C-alpha cells in the first residue's frame, strides 16, 4: 500500500510539474476596454533586460548575465548569439538594453548598452554597436565610453535604455551611479539622457556642445535612474521613465537642454524615511508629467501603435518591478488622463515591447521569461484573471 501511495504521489507531482513547465503563465485577463490571453513565449533567461524585434519578426533578447539571444518568430527556438559581451554582472549591472538600427535591413547593425568593466572591478555604462551576421556579432565597436577615471566600484544606477528618434539620432540614459549630486553637473555623464549619431559622433546642435568643460553628449540632466525611453507614435516626442527613491518615480517628456531636477527637487524621500530635499518645485526645473508615489519601480515603457489592441492605440505601456504588473497609461495632449493595471504578472516586470503583428511582449523575472499578450473577444470566462 505505501508503494502504491508513493507512485500516486510521484505521478501527480510529475504531471503538475510538467504543466507548470509547459505554461504556468497561461491565463485570460479582462480589462476596461478588451480581454486578452497570456502565454509563455520564451523562457530560460536569468533576467531578460531588453527586447528588440528584427525586421524578420525574430526577437533579440538581452540577458543581464551578458548573453544575447535570437528568438524565432514563434518563440519555440532561441539561439545564443556568439561573441557576447564581457560585462560587469553585479548588483544592477550587466548587459542592459538592445536596439536595432532603423536601417537594419541595409546595415545589419544592432546596439547594446551594458556595464563595462575595467581593472579592479570598476564599471560604467558603455554603448556599443555590431553587425549581426546570423548568430554572430561582427565589427564590434564601442561608440560611447566615459574616461576610465569615471569608472567606479558602485554597482547601481547604470540606467540604461536606447532609442532612435525619427531623424535617426540615438538617445541613451545613464543613471546617477549612486552619486546623486552629479546629476546636476553637466561636466559629468551621470544622471543624464545623452544624444549621439548612430556612429557615436556628437551632433553639434546638442545643447552643451559648445559649452566649455561640458559633456557634449548631454541632451537632458537631473535624471535619477532612467530605465525607460520611448517615442510617441504621433508627436515623435521622447518620453522617459525613471526610478525615484522611496516615492517619486517619474514620467517625463524629454526636451533639449532641460533640467529635470534630481536631486534638488523630488517627490520621493530616502529609503530610510528621511528627507532628500524640502522642494518638489523649483524655477528652471521641469515637473514630471506624472509621478508614482509610492514608487512602482517603473522600468521599460513603450507606446502601443499596433492594430491587435486597437482600443489601446497611442497608450503608454509601463512596467512595474515592485508591484509586478503592467500599466496602461492614457496620454492626451502631453498629459496623463487615465491609468489602468492590465496585467498582474506575479513576477517583476522588466520590459515591454510591441511586436510586428501588434501583439505585446513582456519580459519577466524569477524565472526569467517572456510572455505574449494576444487579444480576445470579451466573453464570460469562469477561469479569467482580473
Fold and architecture overview:
The protein is mainly beta and 386 residues long. The chain has a domain of 111 residues. It is built from two helices and 25 strands. The protein has a five-stranded antiparallel beta sheet, with no helix packed on it. A four-stranded antiparallel beta sheet has the order 3-4-5-6, with no helix packed on it. A four-stranded antiparallel beta sheet has the order 7-8-9-10, with no helix packed on it. A hairpin with a 3-residue loop joins strand 24 and strand 25. The longest helix has 22 residues. The radius of gyration is 21 Å and the shape is globular. The protein starts with a helix and ends in a 10-residue tail after the last strand.
Q: What would a concise description of this structure say?
A:
The protein has 386 residues and is mainly beta. It has two helices and 25 strands.
**Oligomer type:** single chain
Low-confidence stretches: 1-21
In DSSP terms, counting alpha (H) and pi (I) runs of 4 or more, how many helices? 2
Per DSSP E runs of 2 or more residues, the count of β-strands stands at 25
Q: What's the pLDDT, averaged over the residues? A: 93
User: What structural class do the secondary elements suggest?
Assistant: mainly beta
How much is the radius of gyration in Å?
Answer: 21 Å
Specify the overall morphology.
globular
Using brief descriptors, characterize the structure shown.
disordered N terminus; 386 residues; 40% strand; 4-stranded antiparallel beta sheet; 5-stranded antiparallel beta sheet; mainly beta
Amino acid at each position: 500500500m505505501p508503494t502504491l501511495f508513493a507512485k500516486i504521489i510521484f505521478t501527480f507531482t510529475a504531471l503538475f510539474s510538467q504543466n507548470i513547465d509547459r505554461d504556468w503563465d497561461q491565463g485570460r485577463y479582462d480589462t476596461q476596454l478588451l480581454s486578452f490571453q497570456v502565454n509563455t513565449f520564451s523562457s530560460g533567461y536569468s533576467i531578460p533586460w531588453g527586447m528588440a524585434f528584427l525586421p524578420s519578426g525574430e526577437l533579440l533578447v538581452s540577458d543581464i548575465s551578458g548573453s544575447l539571444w535570437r528568438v524565432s518568430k514563434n518563440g519555440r527556438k532561441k539561439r545564443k548569439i556568439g561573441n557576447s559581451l564581457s560585462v560587469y554582472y553585479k548588483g544592477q549591472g550587466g548587459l542592459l538594453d538592445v536596439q536595432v538600427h532603423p536601417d537594419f535591413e541595409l546595415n545589419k547593425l544592432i546596439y547594446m548598452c551594458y556595464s563595462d568593466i575595467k581593472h579592479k572591478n570598476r564599471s560604467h555604462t558603455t554603448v556599443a554597436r555590431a553587425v549581426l551576421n546570423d548568430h554572430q556579432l561582427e565589427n564590434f565597436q564601442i561608440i560611447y565610453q566615459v574616461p576610465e577615471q569615471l569608472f567606479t566600484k558602485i554597482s547601481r544606477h547604470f540606467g540604461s535604455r536606447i532609442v532612435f528618434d525619427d531623424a535617426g539620432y540615438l538617445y541613451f540614459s545613464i543613471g546617477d551611479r549612486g552619486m546623486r549630486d552629479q546629476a546636476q553637473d553637466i561636466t559629468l555623464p551621470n544622471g543624464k539622457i545623452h544624444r549621439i549619431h548612430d556612429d557615436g559622433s556628437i551632433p553639434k546642435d546638442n545643447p552643451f556642445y559648445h559649452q566649455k568643460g561640458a559633456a557634449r553628449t548631454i541632451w537632458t540632466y537631473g535624471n535619477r535612474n532612467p530605465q525607460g525611453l520611448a517615442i510617441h507614435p504621433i508627436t515623435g516626442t521622447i518620453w522617459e521613465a525613471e526610478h525615484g527613491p522611496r516615492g517619486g518615480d517619474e514620467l517625463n517628456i524629454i526636451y533639449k537642454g532641460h533640467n529635470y531636477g534630481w536631486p534638488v527637487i523630488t517627490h520621493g524621500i530616502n529609503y530610510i524615511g528621511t528627507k532628500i530635499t524640502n522642494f518638489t518645485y523649483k524655477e528652471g526645473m521641469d515637473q514630471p508629467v506624472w509621478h508614482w508615489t509610492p514608487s512602482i519601480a517603473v522600468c521599460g515603457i513603450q507606446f502601443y501603435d499596433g492594430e491587435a489592441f486597437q482600443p489601446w492605440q497611442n497608450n503608454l505601456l509601463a512596467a512595474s518591478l515592485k508591484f509586478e504588473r503592467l500599466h496602461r497609461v492614457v496620454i492626451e495632449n502631453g498629459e496623463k488622463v487615465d491609468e489602468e493595471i492590465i496585467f498582474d504578472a506575479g513576477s517583476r516586470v522588466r520590459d515591454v515591447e510591441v511586436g510586428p503583428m501588434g501583439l505585446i511582449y513582456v519580459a519577466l523575472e524569477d524565472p526569467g521569461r517572456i510572455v505574449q499578450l494576444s487579444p480576445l473577444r470579451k466573453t464570460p470566462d469562469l477561469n479569467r484573471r482580473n
